Amino acid sequence: MKTLLHMSAVNIATNMEGEYKDYYERKLKEGKHVMSIMNVLRAKLVHRMFSVIRRDTEYTKQYSPAS
Predict the structure, then answer these.
(1) pTM for the full model?
(2) Whole domain around residue 33: which residue ranges?
(3) DSSP secondary structure, 28-60, as one string
(4) How many domains does the chain have?
(5) CA nearest to 9, candidates 52, 62, 45
(6) Residues 1-53: tens digit of each pLDDT
(7) Which of 11, 35, 37, 64 has its CA 20 to 30 A from that of 27?
(8) Which value, to the nearest 10 degrees, does the dihedral of the CA atoms of residues 21, 14, 24, 10 take?
(9) 66 located within any domain
(10) How far is CA 17 from CA 21, 37, 55, 57, in A?
(11) In-domain check, residue 15
(12) 61 domain residue, yes or no
């Protein structure tokens, strides 16, 4: 599972456009170590996965707070 999360983090940090790539590049410019950034990205992915599971809904890119 850790390998799959790591490969997902590498993919979103280097290949895909969006908030994760922006985060990765910003932290690199700040001088953070690559593996430290990858650890954070993996944690972000896990948090999103569990959030979707907890809400029992499909993932939506736009956040809309509960009423």
Answers:
(1) 0.79
(2) 2-55
(3) HHTT--HHHHHHHHHHHHHHHHHHHHHHTS---
(4) 1
(5) 45
(6) 889 999 999 998 988 888 899 999 999 999 999 999 999 999 999 998 898 89
(7) 64
(8) 120
(9) no
(10) 6, 16, 26, 24
(11) yes
(12) no
